[in-house]
Write a structure and sequence with these properties.
alpha/beta, seven-stranded mixed beta sheet, about 40% helix, globular, Uracil-DNA glycosylase
Length: about 230
């Protein structure tokens, strides 16, 4: 097998593990991970988003399928704040462009970079509208093994935590323990190891004064723009 085939095989094995988590708990599950392995390893950067949980207790579904489904993206791309900001930020990072050059989240062109990223949730079974910190922390302990498999396998250049870094042991991420914390004016924390960039961002759905799509995305783009990968 070549490297791509090995990656695809490992991704399929992780998918089966996530399904088993749901089956063992008599629960629905949400498949996460690399959306399109071939495009992921060919992208400008290997970009990984880490969120808390999917908000959909009623059924099982897959980011991997939905992020390739244009009908679903047309329906949800602009209406779901988390997805909208992931679309905008991923496009800006992977296309190395400014805010003004990013297509509208309802434009098919804006969907393209979604197939070049990876996205994982700490909690592998779906949740409800709001998550308690204790629930997410326990999910990390419960699923640390599979989360570590995903982190190591995906070997991301850039990891964006959607207000989730505090749930992890820093040892889970290469170079993070030794890296110096830096802070933007937007209060986003980031860690530059030279080889990797870890961004402890606000959750993409964060609301309130100053939390606009533009301000959220522009802050992330500025961090990446100033990063010089070794």
């Amino acid at each position: 097998m070549n490297n791509l085939q090995l990656l695809e095989k490992s991704c399929s094995e992780i998918t089966e593990q996530i399904k088993k988590i749901g089956q063992d708990r008599n629960s629905n599950y949400v498949i996460d991970g690399i959306i399109n392995p071939k495009k992921y390893i060919s992208a400008k950067y290997r970009l990984l988003w880490i969120l808390k949980e999917a908000n959909s207790e009623m059924d099982s579904w897959s980011y991997i399928k939905n992020f390739k489904d244009k009908d679903w993206l047309y329906l949800c791309g602009k209406s779901i704040p988390t997805l909208r900001r992931i679309i905008y930020a991923s496009y800006g990072i992977l296309r190395a462009c400014e805010w003004g050059d990013i297509p509208d989240a309802g434009n098919e062109k804006a969907f393209e970079p979604l197939e070049e990223i990876a996205l994982i949730n700490i909690k592998k079974i779906p949740g409800h509208g709001t998550s308690t910190s204790s629930e997410i922390q326990q999910a990390y302990y419960d699923y640390r093994s599979i989360l570590k498999q995903q982190i190591d396998l995906y070997d991301a250049d850039i990891v964006i935590f959607g207000n989730t870094m505090n749930y992890f042991y820093k040892e889970d991420f290469e170079g993070l323990v030794q890296a110096e914390k830096q802070i933007t004016d937007y209060r986003t924390h980031f860690y530059d190891t030279g080889k990797k960039l870890y961004i402890h961002a606000w959750h993409p759905a964060a609301r309130g004064r100053g939390f606009t799509d533009k301000s959220y995305v522009t802050d992330l783009l500025g961090i990446v723009k100033n990063w010089k990968k070794e």
